[in-house]
Write a structure and sequence with these properties.
alpha+beta; Beta-Lactamase; Helix Hairpins; 4 domains; five-stranded antiparallel beta sheet; five-stranded mixed beta sheet
Length: 470
């Protein structure tokens, strides 16, 4: 079977299965016929009928001589294919139509009364060669003679029945079953192998850099395999796209400050900028752009360390209520300048083990984004609550909301919902939420977002409660 296709294996397995089923059915039919009493009832009725006919003939129309009797018994034996004998009441065998063909009768039960019809008992005996016989013995009306009618166990009848009555239907049924099995196996094989072939083509397309989604068809296991492949393919494509975006974004974010620094440095070297005030202004711009590049590099290093699990995190008791209150106070002046009301609805929650500074960075990043996208006279509400085995911190705003199709992307590196806000001295580069997500993950929690366009957004930070406080 090495190297054979799945289609060939299915076809062969169904052919073998059909052969096994037909064999079992044939054996069952033979066993049923062998153990069935139908044939033996037929034999019993024949023995009784012939015994009645012979007895009536000998009693009602007795032959003139013994030779005529023997001739009559021979004729009946030849016509009925039964062994007919005539015995004396002491067991002496006077006539046996099968004496030249079969072994002699062994001891025979002598009837003590005259019976006929359905009352006539049927016995069996085994001859000297091991053959099994069924027979009836009937006492004639004179009380001196016994008519014996016997036949062998109907093995030949069973073989004849199977050969003449069952062999052709069995062969026809076998051919039909074989044809149906082949047809069904081809359909089933195509049903199974078609999505597998598509899976192979899909894997080849992914290897060549193309993003392909497979249709979910075939058996349940194949559907699950195709679904897992689609998920893997999407993640691979997203990872590749993320890498391309990362390179492009880093290049873009570094290009502007580097160009600015190079331009002003070249102006100073060339003497284009020579006045003290101009030199000071150029140096200020260069310093600002250098700080911007420094923040970008530090954010990338922080994100890389968090993703790799090598970031230095403190593990101390953290009072989330005090931390959130401090964060809200930090943004209070900025919120007032923008005409936004920011408030914290405090609810007692247990202490957690973590890095307070990192967690404050998470809250600050989310609140800072909320301030950017919440209009004047809007509200930002921060709350904390216990939900099962975790503490949920909710940061809600009344901003413009986040479209559903991009909600999963807002945690990607360099992704910004409003491209016009990219860069600049006061705006980030799209790393804040990515860093926040990794910090929360490093504390064993998760961040989810709930938002509808025009109805604001809610970021939910779920942090686990320490086991001893559960």
């Amino acid at each position: 079977m090495k190297g054979t296709s799945l289609r060939s294996r299915l076809l062969l397995s169904y052919i073998v299965l059909v052969f096994i089923v037909l064999t079992v059915i044939a054996v069952g039919v033979l066993w049923s016929l062998t153990s069935s009493p139908i044939l033996y009832r037929t034999v019993t009725q024949r023995l009784r009928l012939v015994s009645d006919v012979v007895s009536v003939q000998l009693e009602d129309n007795p032959p003139v001589t013994i030779d005529v009797v023997f001739s009559y018994l021979y004729a009946v034996s030849s016509q009925t294919q039964l062994r007919i004998g005539l015995l004396a009441t002491d067991g002496t065998i006077l006539f046996d139509s099968g004496i030249s063909l079969y072994p002699a009768y062994p001891s025979i039960k002598i009837p003590g009364e005259r019976l006929s019809g359905s009352d006539l008992p049927v016995y069996s005996f085994t001859d000297s060669s091991g053959g099994i016989w069924f027979y009836t013995s009937r006492l004639l009306s004179g009380g001196k003679l016994i008519v014996l009618v016997a036949t062998q166990r109907p093995r030949q009848v069973l073989r004849t029945l199977f050969r003449e009555e069952l062999s052709i239907p069995t062969i026809i049924a076998g051919l039909i079953a074989l044809f149906v099995a082949i047809l069904f196996s081809l359909i089933l094989a195509s049903w199974i192998t078609r999505p597998l072939k598509q899976l192979v083509l899909g894997a080849q397309s992914v290897a060549s850099g193309k993003h392909t989604l497979l249709p979910l068809e075939g058996p349940l296991e194949v559907k699950k395999l195709s679904e897992a492949f689609n998920e893997m393919s999407s993640r691979v494509f997203a990872s590749q796209q993320s890498q391309r975006d990362f390179v492009a974004n880093v290049s873009h974010e570094l290009k502007t400050p580097i160009t600015s620094i190079q331009g002003f440095a070249q102006a100073i070297v060339d003497g284009t900028v020579s006045q003290p005030e101009e030199v000071k202004q150029a140096a200020s711009v260069m310093y600002t752009e250098a700080n911007r590049m420094h923040r970008l590099v530090m954010d990338l290093l922080t994100l890389a360390r968090l993703e790799a699990g090598t970031a230095d995190l403190e593990h101390t008791s953290v009072d989330l209520c005090a931390l959130l209150q401090h964060t809200v106070e930090h943004f209070q002046i900025q919120a007032q300048k923008q005409g936004i009301v920011i408030s914290y609805l405090s609810q007692p929650v247990p202490l957690i083990i973590g890095d307070g500074d990192r967690l404050m960075q998470v809250f600050a990043n989310i609140i800072d984004n909320a301030l950017k996208y919440t209009p004047k006279e809007g509200r930002i509400i921060i709350s904390s609550e216990i939900n099962g085995q975790s503490i949920n911190i909710r940061i809600s705003d009344t901003g413009r909301g986040i479209p559903r199709e991009v909600q999963e992307r807002i945690f990607e590196r360099f992704y910004q919902l409003d491209v016009s806000r990219r860069g600049g001295a006061t705006h980030g580069v799209g790393l804040g939420l990515a860093i926040a997500q990794e910090i929360v993950r490093s504390h064993g929690g998760m961040i989810v977002v709930e938002s509808l366009p025009g109805s604001g957004s809610t970021f939910i930070i779920k942090l686990p409660i320490p086991a001893k406080q559960n």
